[in-house]
Specification:
Length: 230
């Protein structure tokens, strides 16, 4: 199966979310799709199931720059992270696997890429005690690791997390890696692609143009109703 790597692009939060969802809904049915991207201005995204009122109460100072993701998880500050999107089609074995198994396989690959940057890392294991929640619950995504999140071996700091969405087309992964875990972003992107292609047993192909989202998809994430739907 081909692994399509799209060019790095900087966009606003609504456009980035629309691009990610479009790769799931309109991408080639027989190809894995991957992109990593930046942000035009300070941006935050929050999980599909999170309550808007809670986000608004916890982080009123950044609420204007918050966009709800199509995937789950907590709120993420994208000012200092490496953000990526991975879409695995329904023809790949990952689509049928348990979410916990996909998450573990994915983060083993990411841990390998981070280790290549000179960091000693491990995965957070099932049964470990999670750190106490912060009083600022909106920051819980990087403060409280989930099973198979990537941790700094020395400090226990969470370095990488992700959220997943599965539908009939395939599996969408939206992930964030702390920038301090990465020395050289372009080199790291290549290392991560190599780790993922090996894990997914795919063949890497660079694609010069990123498909643009449909007008309906773009409007969805620009609409205040999307953010306030829960």
């Amino acid at each position: 199966m081909d692994f399509l790597s799209y060019p790095y692009q900087i966009s606003d939060a609504a456009t980035n979310m629309a691009l990610d969802l479009s790769l799931l809904e309109a991408g080639p049915a027989d190809c894995i799709r991957f992109r990593h991207y930046g942000w035009k201005r300070p941006s935050w995204t929050f999980g599909y199931t999170q309550r808007w009122q809670q986000i608004e109460a916890d982080r009123p100072e950044v609420i204007a720059e918050c966009v709800r993701r199509p995937t789950g998880g907590g709120i993420v500050d994208h000012q200092a992270d490496f953000t990526y999107c991975l879409v695995v089609p329904n023809r790949h074995p990952w689509w049928r696997e348990k979410v916990c198994d996909v998450y573990s396989s994915l983060h083993r690959a990411i841990a390998g890429a981070i280790a290549g940057e000179g960091h000693s890392v491990r995965l957070f294991n099932c049964g470990e005690t999670r750190p106490a929640a912060s009083t600022d619950s909106a920051d819980a995504c990087f403060q409280r690791p989930a099973v198979s999140d990537v941790l700094d071996l020395q400090t226990g700091q969470k370095l990488a997390g992700a959220a997943l969405k599965r539908n009939r087309s395939g599996l969408l992964v939206q992930g964030s890696i702390l920038a301090r875990a990465i020395v050289d972003s372009p080199r790291f992107a290549q290392t991560l692609e190599a780790e993922l292609t090996q894990t997914l047993q795919a063949h890497l192909k660079s694609i010069p143009t990123l498909p643009q989202p449909t007008a309906a998809c773009s409007q969805q994430f620009q609409s205040p109703a999307w953010n306030r739907k829960r």
